[in-house]
């Protein structure tokens, strides 16, 4: 059944892929329409809020929903079911996923990522703040990192223990999960308990071998399309810097544990494989989780693709274990 599911999704994505570069408004509308078809778990409550000066979407389990967690299914008691879930009042002791949506730094929003944030919340019992960071071309690099770092500062200033915060994101947002941690470390802030990247975009130089070996295999991306959106974000700056290309340039010393999930059919595959190698060389606990035959951010196809639900289960378990272990919480002033 999984092969049939993968084939169907591959064909659907090729239909969605435009023939060439599009205007920004068309890209944003098309992406929103595509992501609106993704399944959001039942029992999830969303609240429009603000974090660090930017709009954000708070995603939580609905009150009275026992939900599902990564370490034993439904807890059957209406609570979080995982020792560090929401405390019911959003207080500083609640474990928090600080989530960064995908969209090439040009499109997307907390709403387009709701199948992912909702799935993680349902499986962990954690709450999630999904940040509506500023987008290019109106706000190129480093505006997005400035916004995500401000959101993290706001969580810390509210009294949230960094050992109960995890960074997560998909695609460009997966890259932000890494670069926000770099910026936090450089600013002398404590690091979060863990970093989770779904098909993270980690190399603005586009020098990974998979950019060529997976061309044509990838049903979503072309080099032309990636160059088009990438140029809007980089905006003429040198891509050879850690906050734009951490997979090839970042010093990951002192980083918390990382889980990098990626599909084997992705042109961005080597963004994850090379960052994992850098993490290992820096003595960081890192799990590189490659799933065969699936596309970019395949986890969004929860309820449709078996591999998506299995990967989300692994991701949730990783986050729960890292928060239970007390995280990194390392201050690097």
Features:
10 helices, 15% strand, alpha/beta, 333 residues, Rossmann fold
Summarize the structure.
The protein is an alpha/beta fold.
The CATH topology corresponds to Rossmann fold
Mean pLDDT: 90
How far apart are the first and last residues' alpha carbons, in Å?
A: 51 Å
User: What's the main sheet like?
Assistant: 8 strands, mixed
Low-pLDDT sequence parts:
70-93, 328-333
Q: Tally of extended strands?
A: 8
Helix proportion of residues, in percent? 25-40%
Q: Number of folding domains? A: 1
Radius of gyration: 18 Å
Per DSSP, the total helix count is: 10
Assigned CATH architecture: 3-Layer(aba) Sandwich
Order of helices and strands: HHEEEHEHEHEHHHEHEH
CATH class: Alpha Beta
How much of the sequence lies in strands comes to 5-15%
Shape: globular
Can you identify the CATH superfamily?
Alpha/Beta hydrolase fold, catalytic domain
Q: From the helix content, strand content and strand pairing, which structural class follows?
A: alpha/beta
Instruction: Give, in spatial order, the strands making up the sheet with the most strands.
Output: 1-2-4-3-5-6-7-8
